[in-house]
Each structure stands twice: as C-alpha cells, then as structure tokens.
Amino acid sequence: MHIPSLALIVPLFLVTSSYARFVMYADEWHPTRPTNPRDREGIDHIVLAFAPSNATASFQPKVPISTIKEEFPNAKVMIAIGGWGDDQFYKAVASETSITTFANDIETMLQNTGADGVDIDWEYPGGNGIDYKEHPNSEKTGEITAFPKMLAAIRSAIGKNKLLSIAVPGKEIDMIAYSAETGPEIWPSVDYINIMAYDLINRRDTKTGHHTSVSGSEKVVKNYLSIGAPAEKINLGFAYYAKYFTTADYCTASPLGCALVPAEDPVTGKDALTSGAWTFEKAHMEPVDPSNLTVSTDGTCGPETMTTCASGCCSQYGHCGFSDEHCHGACQHAFGTGCTDPDVFGSWQKAMKNGVYDEEEGGEYFFDADEMLFWTWDTLETISRKFEDIVRAYGLGGVMAWSLGEDSYDWSHIKRMAEELGKGGEESCPSGSSSSMSTPTPTPTPTPTPTPGSSHQCECVAEGYYQEDWCYDKSTGEYYCRVYYDWT
Ligand SMILES: *[C@@H]1O[C@H](CO)[C@@H](O)[C@H](O)[C@H]1NC(C)=O
Ligand SMILES: *[C@@H]1O[C@H](CO)[C@@H](O)[C@H](O)[C@H]1NC(C)=O
Fold first, then answer.
1. Which atom in ligand 2 lies closest to the alpha carbon of residue 288?
2. What separation in Å is there between the alpha carbon of 55 and the centre of ligand 1?
3. How far apart are alpha carbons 169 and 17 in whole angstroms?
4. pLDDT at 348
5. What is the pLDDT, as a whole number, of residue 446?
C-alpha cells in the first residue's frame, strides 16, 4: 500500500502492537542491569530467576523487588521457579497434598516478596530433564497428568490478580506433557506461555544446526498453536547468547548438518564441556589487548579484572587453576596457560566478523576450521525477521528473552526488540521530548481493507492520535492502520 503523505514519518521499524508484551528474565548469574533508562525501555515484565522448587515459600530474590520496581516502574515483577538445574519438581506433584502445599508455598512467596506473579520453569514435566539418565522418562509418566493439576492449584492459591506463566520447551521431543489432550487443561490456568524457542540444537544433538533460527522458531510456535495454545497468551522466546559446538569433522564445505563430537557423556548425561552458551556480555564481546594485562595476585583472572594467571589455566568463570574444570570448557586462552580445549573466546571474535547468514532458515552461523567450532546465534536482523515472520504474522501476545544481564555489552538486542514493539529503543524519540514522544507511529497494514463507513474508519489527520485505528487518506483514497504507543 502506498501512503505518500506519511512516508516521511514512517519509522524504520514497524510496530507490532502497542500492547504486545516484552517479558525479560533477569537471572542471578548475570546480574548486570541497564543504568540508562533508554536501555530498558519497553520491558513490561521482569522475571527473576530462579527460586528452587523445593524451597519456594522462604525464597527471597538476591535483588529486592522494590529495587527492580524503581528501575522498571512500568513492569510487573515475577519470580521464576525451577530452571534447567532444578530436578525437584517431582516432589511437588507427588500427591494431591504435595500439590496443594506447593501452590500454597508459592502464594506465601508472593506475599513475602511482593512479586506480581510466578513463572513455572519446569524443564520438563514428563522427563528429558537434567536427570534423564538417572531417572528415565518411564518413571515420570504420572507428571503428565499432574502438571495441569499443579497449575490449576497454583492459580487457585494465588488468585486472579496475580500472574501465572509457564516456560515451555522449544524442542518437540521435550513437549512430553504438552499435547492436544493436556493442552486444554493447561492453557486456562496460565496468563502467558513463554516459549523457549532456542537451544533447538543442544548437547544431545549429533549434528550442527541453528539453535534459534527464524524457521526453527516458527515451527516451535506452530507446534503450540496446533495443540490449542492461544496466540495471545504466547510470548516468543529469544536468546541473548550464541551457542558453540565442537565438530567431529571439518565442516567448511557444509557447515550445517555436520557431525558433532558427543557433547555429553552417553552413560551419565554429564556435560562433556565441548559445547556451551556464549552470552552477549562485555567480557565476551570485546577483544582483549594483551599489552594491558597484569599478573593476578588473588587467583582471579579474565577480561573483567584484566589479569592473567601466574601459572595454570584461567577457567571460563575467571579462576586460575590446573583441574580439568579450569583447563577445559571455554578455558580462557588469553589469560593463562595450559588450556586443553579450543579457544572459544578467540573463535567468537572470528565468528562475529565472519558470520554467515542463512537466508533460507533465517539464522547466523560460522564454522571455525582452526578450532573446529561451529557457532549459531541471533543477529539484530534475525530478531527483526522473527517479529515480521512470526510475532506479527501469527498475532502473538508478546515476546520473551533470556536474559537481561546477558545482553549487557550494549543492550542492542533489547533495544531492537523494543523498537519492533514500538516501545522505545534506538529509533525512539529522545527522552524528555514529550512532544515527539507522543507522535503516533503509523503502520501500514495491507489486510484487511476496511470499508468506508465501518466502525473502524477514522478521518486521517497528519498528527492524529488514534490508537489501533483505521485511517482513510483522502489524498490517495487508501486505508491504512495506524498504531501508536501510549507513553503515559
Ligand atoms: C533442594 O534440592 C537441591 C537439589 O536440587 C538440594 O541440594 C537441596 O538440599 C534441596 N533443598 C531442600 C530444602 O530440600
Ligand atoms: C590499554 O591501555 C592503554 C593505556 O593505559 C589504554 O589507552 C587503552 O585504552 C587500553 N586498552 C584496552 C583495550 O583496555
């Protein structure tokens, strides 16, 4: 649709909907938060992660909720229970009594902390969790029917005025408790469904591939829609990290679908540390100037302290030592000696420079033949494409990201998502200029075309303030939909 009179004020990014949610996990391992309000604009839900499922009632977040509310005055603050490492949910659903106790404990936690709601991050009801080798899925079939009962009990304990969301698996194989049969028992209890449309290649896979491509994410969303998940409850998940995998073969000729070395122990399921997640934090993103390093005197090392180990390896977490944990698994080559694994940090610098865009799947990747590492991640461009191809195309209720602190290098992924939501970011009006902030952001929408005289028709004015309304441009005789974000 051609709208010449508005072309000049159409922003680079088209608005999804003024009301689409922007849900942000804030995890305890990456505690950095934006200090500039511009970098956190648009985030309307903060989910603090994690409270343990076996000690919920007494949980207190490391950062008080009152602090979070000062920084995010327009956000609901929720607490997530569980996470990948939590293998204790089976206790919560062991009996009707334990379900009731767990639900009441959550209510107690909300009362004690002042949180606005709870997110259940059980990975996963029915199995395939971190303990899947010790406790096979066959031991967990009861969880499939217990899970919806647990959600209903939580809803009844916390009431309608508190939020209840669930974090749900991206991989189809992990959707053990999510089916056409269980879905109708699940959706009515929850406000939001946070789809973890990432880690779609994980350490149980045997071949390289995109971990969070556009087409992969779309398929995940379709899986949930096909079992009746309401689009308006779905938040599409984004990952603020790249993933790397050690390959078994030289993958230069065909980097996608290339064999991986086994990334976990086939007997115990333990992480072989040949793969991992690489967050978008300063320490990971900025190249190191070796001339600025000094020798560590306290056993810590790495880009944060700009110190090297006097002897031994600098572990992924910035500690000097000689054990396998120090020298293997994203050992920091530039800050010590003796790493026995590939130089993940150095490889990522190459990946960022030489990343390849897979137009068809919608994913960025890089194969580093020197280190035998395959990289897969979301760029700002693939983020925008997900809004276009998935969030807007399927009318989803919002988006979610893991996690706030993992984007702390420049907050660029957060800002891009805020832009796409029409809630701020790089292209938003400068803070404090209230006149331009209230300028409506028009969005041309080709379908459906309203008929003159319908209730959606409005007279178009250059600087009108219609919200999600149809406008008629007299000069061209065309209709378009305009949307603007209510900043008040
Ligand atoms: C909760 O479970 C963890 C293991 O995931 C265990 O280490 C901890 O002791 C448990 N806490 C309680 C209160 O049972
Ligand atoms: C290295 O140190 C020099 C001199 O102190 C400084 O100008 C430069 O910014 C430093 N480089 C980095 C990458 O920190």
1. 13
2. 8
3. 25
4. 98
5. 39
The pLDDT assigned to 424 comes to: 67
Q: Rg of the chain over CA atoms, in angstroms?
A: 24
Per-residue pLDDT tens digits for 154-164? 999 999 999 99
Question: How far from the centroid of its chain's Cα atoms is residue 414's Cα?
Answer: 10
Note the pLDDT of residue 434.
28
Could you tell me if 362 and 213 are in contact, meaning their C-beta atoms sit under 8 angstroms apart? yes
Q: Which of 164, 149, 86 is nearest to 123 (CA)?
A: 86
Structure tokens of 214? 């556009």
The pair phi, psi for residue 348, each rounded to 5°, is -65, -35
How many Cβ atoms from other residues are within 10 Å of residue 271's Cβ? Answer: 14
Distance CA 400, CA 238 (A): 6
Count Cβ neighbours within 10 Å for each residue of 277-313 and write b for 16 or more, e otherwise: bbbbbebbbeebeeeebeebeeebbbbebebbbeebb
Q: Looking at residue 281, what is its pLDDT?
A: 96
Instruction: Return the pLDDT at 9.
Output: 36
Amino acid 425: pLDDT:
58
Mutate to test the pocket of ligand 2, among 292, 335, 349 (most ligand atoms within 8 A of CB): 292
For ligand 2, is residue 292 a contact (CB within 6 Å)? yes
In angstroms, rounded to a whole number, what is the distance separating the alpha carbons of residues 74 and 114? Answer: 15
Ligand nearest to the CA of 291: 2
Count of helices and strands (H, E) across the chain = 12, 20
pLDDT at residue 422, rounded to an integer: 87
Low-confidence ranges of the chain (pLDDT < 50): 1-16, 427-474, 479-488
User: Is residue 57 in contact with ligand 1, taking CB distance under 6 Å?
Assistant: no
Residue ID of nearest Cα to ligand 1 atom 11: 54
Q: Please report the pLDDT score of residue 315 as a whole number.
A: 96
As a whole number of angstroms, the distance between CA 91 and CA 140 comes to 11
The alpha helices in 244-370, defined as continuous H runs, are: 282-285, 324-327, 344-354
For 430-441, what is each residue's pLDDT tens digit?
A: 333 222 223 344
What domains can be seen in the chain, in order of their start residue? 1-13+440-488 (no CATH), 19-243+378-420 (3.20.20.80), 275-340 (no CATH)
Residue 310: CB within 6 Å of ligand 1?
A: no
Instruction: Determine which helix (DSSP H) or strand (DSSP E) holds 313, and give its type and residue range.
Output: strand 313-314
